Amino acid sequence: MPIPSLLDTDLYKFTMMQAVLHQHPAAQVEYRFKCRTPGVDLARHVDAISEGIDALCALRFREDELDWLRGLRFIRSDFVDFLGLFRLDRKYVHLAPSASVPGEIDLTIRGPWLHTILFEVPLLALVSEVWSRATHVLDPAEGLRRLDAKIERLVAADPEGRLAIADYGTRRRFSRDWQRQVLLRLREGLGPRFVGTSNVMYARELGMTPLGTMAHEWLQAFQALGPRLRDSQKAAFEAWAQEYRGDLGIALSDVVGIDAFLRDFDMYFCKLFDGMRQDSGDPFAWGDRVVAHLAANRVDPRTKTLVFSDALDVERVLALQDYFRGRARVAFGIGTNLTNDVGPRPLSLVIKMTRCNGQPVAKLSDSPGKTMCEDPGYVAYLRQVFGVAEG
């Protein structure tokens, strides 16, 4: 099924895009696709994926969609006016079977950051759905049985309704129709424990809260845009604060590792931001360090929110909720385990920024194997500058 709307993406794509419009409208970037699941033949689906990209590039924002965006407190009217003129351009996307690895695909996005930033999430969702539909016939009853078991477990473990669960599953969903069913079931079954979705289209359609702030690419880009590499992370947080003036205050912590993050996230940022998001590494160790860091900077950790979003399942959510009870606020963004747990193993798909203004950029993940960059020399230099050991 084609992507039906340019709103069918994660909220943080719009929040970052607005900041790009205001601060770096001329920046040029490159993104690359990677399937982390071994032995998957995506090359035979190139034609179907290409047709989906063509359909995506034919979309425009409708007036009712723009009116809804204009009503979000953190979206400015000039950005909505820009979106009224916006379209995704097919010339910025290259797709072909890999010339070097049988079965793999070469999917690259290259062009102005402002005009390419909205490609990532719908392209990942498109690849996921094309592969899922070609390899598995969805059994809705089985999918709902699995989902209901998770809901029952969460409710039973949290009778007071203190959990905060959000859907972060657009990019690796089984299908867009299935994601919609999942969202309706979560709202019905979890009640107030379900706090919203990252998917802007469904937030609008179903009357849910859209959730999201920044992604890795925001901080990665500042490796090329900032005053100097060592200060790039601080520059990215400062630019975010200047754009949103205290709103959307969840900082992403794992672009160059937790050690470097804590060095840069000083008392000013600890007091300014509402919390931090963990997306790689050991979440318990990460939370312990963040709580201690806040306390050392004279900030009560119980006033801040720790957002966990790395490969979560129900058992991990409940363990983290119990571990940090009374120590900090916690919230959970669950992705693939909600929107693509229907039987077969879902694909692990990513699209990451690899260059900005002609310079390599990278993420030094706290999880082994997640670092993605085409220039090993740059990765080594980035590790040296931020004092990050080989993972």
Overview of the structural elements:
Residues 7-128 form the Nicotinate phosphoribosyltransferase N-terminal domain. Pathway: Cofactor biosynthesis; NAD(+) biosynthesis; nicotinate D-ribonucleotide from nicotinate: step 1/1. This protein is α/β, with parallel strands linked by helices. It folds into two domains: 11-136 and 348-358, nicotinate phosphoribosyltransferase (Alpha-Beta Barrel), CATH 3.20.140.10; 140-339, Alpha-Beta Barrel (nicotinate phosphoribosyltransferase). The chain contains 17 helices and eleven strands. It has helices at residues 11-23, 46-57, 63-70, 77-85, 113-116, 120-135, 140-157, 176-190, 200-206, 216-225, 232-244, 258-264, 267-272, 283-296, 314-323, 336-339, 376-386; strands spanning 28-35, 93-97, 105-112, 165-167, 194-197, 250-252, 275-278, 305-308, 329-334, 349-356, 359-360. The strands form two sheets. The protein has a six-stranded parallel beta sheet. Helix 2 (46-57) packs antiparallel against helix 6. The radius of gyration is 20 Å and the shape is globular. It starts with 10 loop residues before the first helix and ends in a 5-residue tail after the last helix. The model has no long low-confidence stretch (mean pLDDT 95).
β-strand percent reads 5-15%
CATH topology of the largest domain: nicotinate phosphoribosyltransferase
Overall geometric form: globular
Adjacency order of strands in the biggest sheet: 5-4-9-8-7-6
How many β-strand stretches?
Answer: 11
Radius of gyration: 20 Å
CATH class label of the largest domain: Alpha Beta
Element pattern in H and E: HEHHHEEHHHEHEHHHEHHEHEHEHEEH
pLDDT average, as an integer?
A: 95
- Helix tally equals 17
Poorly predicted ranges: none
The number of distinct structural domains comes to 2
Structural class of the helix and strand makeup?
alpha/beta
Give the helix proportion (percent range).
Answer: 40-55%
Task: Tell me about the largest β-sheet.
Answer: 6 strands, parallel
